[in-house]
Design brief:
This protein is an alpha+beta fold and about 100 residues long. It is built from two helices and four strands, in the order βαββαβ.
């Protein structure tokens, strides 16, 4: 399993969302690294953890900096369409990482 973490402090008024995305085309280490690199370039996305065994990843995003559609668009345009999404944690206000 490839696991890495991106962290930063978020605004006291922003909301955090934790999502699990299933990406069937992320089926080897090289592709997992590509996906991680794509996500790390999106301002507002952090705590990305890839799981090759399930072709999925978990991530948080700050709603003041990005949203789920922007994340899905970046992944889809690069050949990594998200086929399933699950909200893992309800939004929390003012959480500092």
């Amino acid at each position: 399993m490839l696991a890495s973490t991106l962290c930063y402090a978020v605004s006291a008024y922003s909301l955090e969302y934790q999502w699990k995305y299933v990406i069937p085309t992320m089926d080897n280490r090289e592709k997992a690294v590509q996906v991680f690199d794509l996500l790390s370039d999106i301002i507002g996305v952090y705590d990305v953890t890839n799981n090759l065994d399930t072709s999925s990843l978990m991530l948080f995003y700050d709603d003041e900096r990005t949203d789920e559609e922007a994340v899905k668009k970046v992944l889809g345009n690069a050949g990594f369409p998200v086929t399933r999404m699950m909200l893992l944690k309800e939004p929390r206000e003012g959480v500092m990482n």
